[in-house]
């Protein structure tokens, strides 16, 4: 039953001949990679949820990260770290989109590093100077923890939490940008 549902989903997403750039069927390498990624995805409720979410988000993210293996690895990390922090993974992806445009080596004018643009002073605060903020797993752990903290501090007010995360509390430009990316590109109905 699960196999048929996945095949149907793959068929819907990849077999529309009228869509530009889409193939008649998914590439075998992508299918294999997706299966391997699902096996390693330990933050999902069940395998079906993992397959559907990873395939959906991978398809959306393809224009930003062309390499399928890199994309699926990032998505698995985002889902794991966001789930640990009590955040929606699609919101975290929107924040990454706004902060770094998916560039793990991004450095801001004030020195914030990595995909989630974490300030390096946090390493000293935690007594972990060896941490590498351009490592996606490390960056996501820091960034998701920080955002989760600000959401609690702001009693769930996403706009204020995002402004705190960005250091722009009292302004709405940054939070509007993240929420816009979330709703327009990354939002997934629960």
TrEMBL record:
Signal peptide segment: 1-20
Keywords: Signal
Origin: domain of life: Bacteria
Domain Transglycosylase SLT: residue ranges: 78-172
Any Pfam family: SLT
Keyword Nucleotide-binding in record: no
PANTHER family: MEMBRANE-BOUND LYTIC MUREIN TRANSGLYCOSYLASE C (PTHR37423:SF2), SOLUBLE LYTIC MUREIN TRANSGLYCOSYLASE-RELATED (PTHR37423)
Name by which UniProt lists this protein: Transglycosylase SLT domain-containing protein
